[in-house]
Amino acid sequence: MFNFTHDGHVHTPFCPHGTNDPIEHYIQVGIEKGLQTMTFTEHAPFPLSFTDPVPNQDSAMSIDLLPEYLDTLHQMKQQYQAVIDIKVGLEVDLLSHLEKETIALLKPFAPLIDEVILSQHFLYRDGAYMPIDYSAETFDELIKAFGSFESVLRAYYESIEQGLSFSWEDIRVARIGHLDLPIKYQRNYEWDRSKVKEEEIRLLQMIADRGFGLDFNTAGLRKPDCGVPYVAGLAKSANDLHIPFTMGSDAHLAQDVAAGFDFIEQKKATFL
User: Residue 17: which of 60, 72, 52 has the closest Cα?
Assistant: First the structure.
């Protein structure tokens, strides 16, 4: 169920909110940690009709950089092929009401891509997109808008479920990223996961029916208001539905490649 030799969620210096660590540095850390495979999944460009709501508008790379990003990764793939399998990927945002535009924008590049993570970082409400994981302060605005932590998580699940009706296979989507991202701030609120169980199971069933996997994302371990991997709380239900996991560090700096994998390996029985 868990493959600890593949980090399937790694960012690069093409990320405008990451670091300038060279891609080669990420790869060297991966090799040192015993990885056999790394999938680089930089934040894909947004559709032109979308305005990034975070203050610095730095959530994703620009469309102008996408060809250079893909070319660079194909060079790395060739350069390191005898040592480690480099997969060329993207992390694509699921934007409610802009699914078709997103697919149309990225479909011409699909032949150059090995696999894609589909992730949701914004919730649509009252005609506007609100960031989920930008800061504790902006997340609290979500809580106020939706009424409770459970309501935010419920809306998050329902939005992904609705978005999955589109043809994401056209752009090589292989798995869904950090499926319960709102838990990044869970320690700031009293909440009960059982209250969203129905929505959770319904979404997992749809993911299973579509043949997608899940990003078992260790970044949550590094977030002080979270303290657990993303998807850990859904892992047993996902496993029961035979949904495959791909370990992902969500590294935005080289030192975080495969971070937390040793912890999950030691505790894996507790998640299933």
Answer: 60
